[in-house]
Specification:
alpha/beta; 10 helices; elongated
Length: 377
């Protein structure tokens, strides 16, 4: 397909995957970003490597020669470099190929999609240099884009279309909608006491936590598009001590922006009136992504992809999914996004993660044709 060098791609993917780049591994993330910067430089893109936040997390911006200093673009590619896997994972299970699939930490989510962006950029610089392309690769998406959100939104507001290079879905499908996601830490402070000698002097933080597990469950409403899950709980120090401290982490998924304030209102009301007298409750929002909503501009992108599919002999559908991504940040500033544009992946965030090698060239050809169709409009 148009001279795509699959062997070279897989060799470079092995190099890329075999760099530990967990979200909290700043050294590994910096190595990965510098590695990728060299690849973009080699294909004629202008690169800028920045470091954000107190931890100096890298973020790489690569622009085609047609992009001016104001960073306005026709097409924006986004794709994060961080994975959910800690330092040392590569040593345990490095990149490998078996039965037509590529394995390794982050191979699907989402180093294969990020590397494919380099190959697409290379072709556009060579064959369509007038198209203004920008690629943005942050290093904190898996923890809520805590440092990169503002910059991603700024660049997202200055582009016509965005392709999020997250892994393609089963059936070669793309993603058109994502639920919003918000994560909250609820902290409980009571008073410790000996459970045998003076239980009446204690105030159980764990007991109040248990109330939250039960009283937040009715907030789940599938028909309204709300999911609330108390996913992590902790508290207490010993079985013979009335627990002074407890904590839980709550995950909220929602389809419309106006739904989240109602959930937060319930949280604040529960915190203000604890069921266990004397317990102090604190609600803290840790991270989140807004919903990624489809509109008429998204329809234009989907139509272009379908026409490109006809031209390249590919069929697929567009899905709505529950997980958040940086595509949601782009959508929140009014720019249309299609997600799941990378090679097709499975089992991400697990030791069994893999990527379907046969989907690489298909995605390359499809996205190239779709973008050209969009630029003709």
């Amino acid at each position: 397909m148009s001279g795509f060098e699959l062997e070279r791609y897989l060799e470079e993917l092995q190099e890329f995957v075999d760099i530990d780049s967990g979200s909290h591994d700043i050294a590994g993330l910096t190595i990965a970003a510098q590695w990728l910067e060299k690849k973009y430089d080699a294909v004629g893109m202008k690169t800028e490597l920045r470091f954000l936040g107190e931890n100096r997390r890298p973020i790489l911006i690569a622009c085609s020669p047609a992009v001016s200093s104001d960073k306005k673009s026709d097409v924006l590619f986004i794709g994060h470099l961080d994975t959910v896997f800690p330092e040392g994972t590569v040593a345990e299970r490095p990149f490998c190929i078996s039965d037509g699939n590529a394995y390794g930490p982050g191979v699907a989510d989402m180093k294969s999609g990020v590397l494919l962006t380099v190959y697409l950029a290379e072709r556009f610089v060579r064959e369509n240099p007038h198209i203004r392309l920008i690629a943005v690769h942050n290093c904190d998406e898996e923890i809520g884009s805590i440092d990169s959100e503002e910059l991603i939104k700024i660049l997202g507001a200055k582009t016509g279309y965005c392709f999020d290079m997250e892994p393609g879905r089963q059936g070669r499908n793309f993603v058109k909608n994502r639920k919003g996601v918000a994560e909250y830490k609820i902290s409980f402070k009571g008073r410790a006491s000996h459970a045998g000698n003076a239980p009446e002097k204690g105030i159980s933080a764990v007991r109040e936590l248990a109330r939250w597990v039960y009283d937040t469950f009715p907030l789940n409403d599938a028909s309204a598009g709300i999911n609330v899950n108390v996913g992590v709980v902790s508290g207490g120090t010993a079985s013979n001590v009335i627990p002074e401290f407890a904590e839980c982490i709550i995950d909220v998924r929602y389809t419309e922006m106006e739904l989240l304030p109602e959930v937060e209102k319930k949280f604040m009301a529960m915190a203000a009136e604890p069921a266990v007298e004397g317990v102090i409750v604190k609600v803290e929002k840790l991270s989140g992504f807004p919903p990624m909503a489809a509109d008429e501009k998204t329809d234009i992108m989907m139509d272009a992809l379908l026409k490109a599919g006809e031209k390249t002999g590919q069929s697929f559908e567009f899905e709505s999914v529950g997980g958040g991504s940086d595509g949601s940040l782009i959508s929140s500033v009014g720019t249309p996004v299609i997600d799941g544009c990378g090679p097709v992946g499975y089992m991400y965030h697990t030791p069994d993660e893999y990527m379907d090698i046969s989907s690489i060239e298909e995605r390359y050809a499809l996205l190239y044709e779709a973008i050209n169709i969009l630029m003709e409009k």
